[in-house]
Amino acid sequence: ADTSPSTFLAALRSDLRIRVLSRPDPRTLVFELVGVDASFANALRRIMIAEIPTVALEYIYMWNNTGLIHDEVLSHRLGLVPLNVDPRLFDEYGLDVDENGEAAATDRNTVVFRLNVACGRNEREDERLERKMEERWRNEGLVRGLDPKKANKGGEQEEGSGSSKKKKSKNKKNKKGKAKNEEGAKEEDEEEVEEEDEEALEPSVMGLSIADKAASHAAVHAASNANVGTTIAIDEPSRPFTKHIYTHHLLWCPQGDQLERFPLHNDDATTTTTTTTTSIGGIRPIHEDILLAKLRPGQVIELEAHARKGTGKDHAKFSPVATASYRLMPQIEITRPIYDDDAEELVNWFEPGVFSLLPIPSDAEGEDAGHRVKAAVSNPYACTMSRNFMRHPVLKERIKMSRIPNHFIFEVESVGMMAPGVIVAEALKVLKEKCERVVGLADESLAAMMGGV
Q1: Which of 33, 186, 226, 428 is spaced 20 to 30 Å from 216 by Cα?
Q2: DSSP SS3 for 368
Q3: How do the residues of the chain divide into helix, strand and coil, expressed in percent and rounded to 5?
Q4: How many Cβ atoms are within 10 Å of 214's Cβ, its own excluded?
Q5: C-beta separation of 145 from 246 below 8 A
Q6: Beta-ladder partners of 376
Q7: Which residues, 6+ apart, have CB-to-CB distance to 303 below 8 Å?
Q8: Contact between residue 27 and residue 323 where contact means Cβ atoms under 8 Å apart
Q9: The whole model's pTM is what?
Q10: 302 φ, ψ to 5°?
Q11: Per-residue model confidence as pLDDT tens digits over 110-144
């Protein structure tokens, strides 16, 4: 066989094919790559994992942390929070320098966040404290990517306190008549709601203990408030008040013209939580309900975090994919016909989704005569190469299973800062740059050799 470079490139151009197979969700892409060898496929996979630049929190300036989590652990947790920042819109750190020639942080290479939270003695005091701090950071020009009150369109959800005001409480005030004061009416309403919730709960192995009640209440209200989009934490009434700090407490500090380049409420942008997707813009964490820390009364966390571009080969937090894997395309051949009961067992038990049953006409002749159905390969993509059929004495003699060496099925799951299709395109660009660099080095080496001669 001709192994010259020109022949190889010609075969690559004629045989190379990329086809999208499915998009199970907006962050997952399944496609097939045909006409290349394993080295090309593996290079593409490794580039997607480790060489596509993204933006993540790199430097944490801890001003005050009296919580239980140590500074180093909290910094590490913050670094792993995926950010909704398109890295293609930012420069590499080090391109901009100051008057001394040293690398300088600018609005083109750095994104700044702050975390200023404190825990009150109880829920009411914590609400007052949070309102006061919210007014303070709004006056300082800080921005929160997701406003749970606006997301709920009514302000029913409380932020970070690990509890949720019950909509039923407010709806029942008109039914109860006039109360002596608003505070007393609110307490009575909450008691009635708790009683109704307890009646609706199913008995548990713990006998509806305090912990069971707390967990069940959280599950009930999570289901009833599915459109809120924030996590409801579990708190036991007997414990001291606990404040839960989530990623939506991170405040974005726009620098330079970043607020103009990344407007806050963009209809084309969405933020995802475990319960819903909300239309929102700006620079923010991709997931708003990641638990960062827990605080007890009197504890505070104050810090500033700087995010910069990096790649997965430096740290896993910069990797744009959760998974990027491939498998070889199965090749399945039925060497001898499989009929009736054996065919039904193959289709329904041994390899579901791969084979199908073909009805045989009553007037069939030859090998098909006298049989009801026959097995046929219908979807080789669904084959997992389990080879369960090898346990059947008849099937193992009539099926041949192998893999196609130049046909790869990729599955790419994005973390969220870039769509999986964009990640694949960026990986191909990086691979192209690597090839051009090798060609350039080869030309330079050849020119040096020719010059020496």
Answers
A1: 186
A2: helix
A3: 35, 25, 40
A4: 19
A5: no
A6: 356
A7: 60, 61, 62, 63, 64, 65, 74, 114, 115
A8: no
A9: 0.75
A10: -135, 120
A11: 999 999 999 988 888 888 888 888 888 877 777 77
